[in-house]
Amino acid sequence: MCQTYRSMTMLVADEMRIMTVSPIDTMFVLVHGAWHSSRQWVSTQRALAGRGVASIAVDLPGHGFDAPLPTGYLTGDQNTMSTEKSELAGLTMDDCADAVLAALRAVRGHARAVVLVAHSAGGGPASLAAERAPELVDRIVYLSSFVPAGRPRFLDYASAPENTVDRGAGLTIGDPAAIGAIRINPISTEQRYVDELHRTYYGDVPADRLDRWRSALTPDLPLSIPSSPVALTPQRWGSIPRTFLRCAEDQAFLPAAQDLMIAEADEAMPGEPFTVHTLPGDHSPFASRPDELAAVLASLPR
Question: Any keyword Hydrolase (predicted)?
Answer without folding.
Answer: yes
